[in-house]
Amino acid sequence: MVPEESPSGKNVQRREATEKLPGFREERKAVEMLAEGTLKGRTAVVTGGGTGMGLAMAKEFARLGANVVIASRKQEVLEEAAEAIRAGAAKGAAVAWYTVDVRQHEAVEEVAAKVSERFGNAQILVNNAAGNFVVPASQLSVNGWKAVIDIVLNGTYFCTHAFGTRLLEAGERGSIINMVASYAWTGGPGTVHSAAAKAGVLSLTQTLAVEWGMQGIRVNAISPGPIEETGGAERLFSVPEVAKAVSDDVPLRRFGRPEEIAWAASYLASDYAAYVNGACLVVDGGAWLNKGFVKLFEQR
Ligand code: NAP
What we know:
Elements: H1 7-19, E1 43-47, H2 52-63, E2 67-72, H3 75-87, E3 95-99, H4 105-119, E4 124-127, H5 142-170, E5 174-179, H6 183-186, H7 192-211, E6 217-224, H8 231-237, H9 240-248, H10 258-269, E7 280-283, H11 293-298
Parallel strand pairs: 1-2, 1-4, 2-3, 4-5, 5-6, 6-7
This protein binds NADP nicotinamide-adenine-dinucleotide phosphate.
NADP nicotinamide-adenine-dinucleotide phosphate binds near residues 53, 179, 181 and 227.
């Protein structure tokens, strides 16, 4: 035991106390947020819904009773994910998948038409599909820049336009959720392409919240922090030392969990958020506000 009077000892004790908090790191509780049936009768489309946070959101929407459509490029990933979503879906909630590359606006239009034909217009759309990799801007190729901008910014716009205009034309209400990241407003050294694209997505969110809010379509964003069990975490934080440094930098001292993002999304999709429009819900354990304070405080 480190003596109480030692400053570093105090910090060890603080950390031990934090680690005993419910929900810290590995401790997982099978908790449910909204009641089954909350999204009954609605259809939710999640791009990139076969993996990571997209899959967690799709599972939660299906548990809440929505018909769920997942869409991305890889058929085998979608098939397997659809099985997993079906396993926990509420009675009567259908699960479907479509292969699509969100960069291809005609293909996106086709999927939107198929969804409307099969389920009626989707009232919930989550623009979750993304691509990202770490590279200094000086070494980023034109193709690398274009690929990320195309998936994240253009893909989000194509999907939003295809699904949103169907609702507008039919005079139906809806909820669109765009996944961003805090580098949309802080900048992201090492990820200039993704940061610029997410800044565009945040702006698109705010613009359409006003344009389409007047017609009953709410447009919001979620900004996740580092989230475990996601493609993003694998790509950006796979080196253990990096993962540790990242989680140590989060005031809540851990990575977030995919289901914590799914809870935020299901709230925004639901009528409980009927007056929430143009918001960006930050779910990052306080990470973006840290500015090095956590480390400084520990070293005292
Ligand atoms: P992920 O597991 O990497 O999944 C990305 C999904 O996007 C995949 O299912 C992929 O499926 C799909 N996708 C990629 N390119 C596509 C394309 N051209 N067309 C259609 N689908 C495409 O994602 P994640 O890490 O959970 O992140 C989810 C969202 O949160 C993203 O928007 C990400 O930017 C954001 N975010 C993540 C973190 C994090 O810690 N992970 C932090 C902040 C923000 P296919 O390969 O089958 O196409």
